[in-house]
Amino acid sequence: MTLFRRADVGDDEPQHLKVSLDLKSVWHATWIVIGALALLTALGYLTGSAGSVVFNVVMAFFLAAAIEPAVSRFAMHMPRALATGLVVLLLACAVVGFFAAFGGLLVDEVQALISAAPGLVTDCVDWVNRKFDTDYDINKLLSSVNLTPDNVANYGSQLAGGVLGLVTSVVSTAFNLFVLIFFTCYISAGLPRLRTWVAGLFPPRQQRVVLTVWEVFVAKVGGYVAARFILATISATIHCTFMMLIGMPYWLALGLWTGIIAQFVPNIGTYISIVLPVLVGATSDKPINGLFILIFAIVYQQIENVTIEPNISARAVDVHPAVSFASALAGANMFGLAGGLLGVPAAATAMAILDLYKTRYEVKSSTLDAAQRDAKKDLDDDPPTNDDPPGQRDPVELAEADSAADAAPDRAVNTGAGGSTKA
Questions:
Q1: How far is C-alpha 305 from the geometric centre of its chain's CA atoms?
Q2: Are 117 and 134 in contact (CB under 8 A)?
Q3: Mean pLDDT across the chain, nearest whole number?
Q4: Cβ–Cβ < 8 Å for 281, 292
Q5: DSSP letters of 97-114?
Q6: How do residues 228-249 score in pLDDT, each as one tens digit?
């Protein structure tokens, strides 16, 4: 390839510059482009066709990290694969045992609660009309949200005609659950080898950082999920017991709802979980139960915040409530409900790593006081006016400048002749 170079001053004609292309460089650039296109194609496939598989693998990794504390304890006395199987079997037995003991009662209460929902709505509207002297009509309210009897009948016929689709959804959900458990068992059993393999991808000087990030992540996720389960169990048990003692209808279903929602929905779960029991109690045969359960929930929440939760989850997560809420929203937008649940431990991991590797400096109280004095002085000073003669300064300002000049130490001043003198 021949290029023309601009003629220099004094040259009669432009000179030629020969540029040769290296075949090896051309092939190198071609393979880089091909690799980038292949990577983009793979990412498109992973986010499209294989999106569900990737999601199951990610969720399985989080679940493996969640059961890691229990698995590591059992692994001290038996092979790790057997410890993983034992933990998963114990969890399955706990779920099966709960449904075997309370499954019939829970199903009956949920069915009764759903059947009584229209009556509960009517009772709520009537109570509002009596207390606030309003004239709301239940039929008009339902029509405003497009829930007329004809629409309800159409929904019912569509549901009846979609039995095959419902069965297909149930089978698909069961298969996805099996795949999730399968991946969780394999990842949990090989978690130490996976950790070593990931660390081996980095140079020796960076392996310590990678392993530290790994350990912090596993500790945060496992501690958070374990703490949430323990708190949900305690909360559900106490609320179920209280509701049963005061004669609340559907006490088992409402108690489980309160305990699970309050613990696994960050920040606002406590307020959401108590709305349904209060409404059911206020519209029951004994409306005073709604007030009782509201007072009990408020008192229990204060006791849990002060005594129970700090002792259980203090080491699991330590993030600001605003950061927790934002991370839960971000996780829910990306991965749905599961992402909302796992957004908080992910944020806790990031904050813990930031605290490990970012230098923080102590801010002294004297520095704060000096900054406040400077800010107050700047705010209190009057701005200069155009009425003052040029060069005129405040007498107090002049006095402060003179005293500062007297107190200043001698300094060297360059004389411009290679020497210096004292000012």
A1: 20
A2: no
A3: 74
A4: yes
A5: HHHHHHHHHHHHHHHHHH
A6: 888 888 999 999 999 999 988 8
